Amino acid sequence: MIASIRGIIQSIGIDHLIVETGGVGLLIYAPRSTLNAVGQIGSETFLYTLLIVREDALTLYGFSDPAQRNLFEQLIGVSGVGPKIALNLLSSGSPDEIQKSIAGGDIARLARVPGIGKKTAERIVLELRGKIDLRQLSGTTPGNVSTLDRELTDILISLGYSATEAAAAIAALPGDAPPTLEERLRLALRYFGSA
Question: What is known of its domains?
Fold first, then answer.
């Protein structure tokens, strides 16, 4: 496996760049956010990479950080989601935003991405929702979780939901959710009813 690449940018295309390292120019497909962040032609860049080996091709994918690469790997593990669709999804937002959409079951947001229809969006949510730990995402660290939401998490866990499921339900609460524990619990339970 080629885990990372450091080299000089030779060219940047719509969905790829060519990085020269050790006298070899490597074609690396990447999400738009990575392409926008790599720098200018002629400058040195560093990318986290994933090599996908197929019968007819060796294809290298590059990412600006390990979180992007990890999410890409999860996405291509979903039935019906190939590297191109995964790159389109990664180009639509930050890994945190995408993971929150998946955990929150935001099928409409996912289906707006080119190449992803409603069925594929539903499959992504179904297969990945339980694998996303919202506590690891920026903006949802334990210090940022309110006491009310910690209590709600404890209640949901005591009702038999996993910590990940509880975090997903809390993340799916609307921004204007009532500040009472009872109302937030009712909304969280509705989340499970619609899942």
Answer: Has three domains with a flexible linker between the domains II and III and assumes an 'L' shape. Domain III is highly mobile and contacts RuvB.
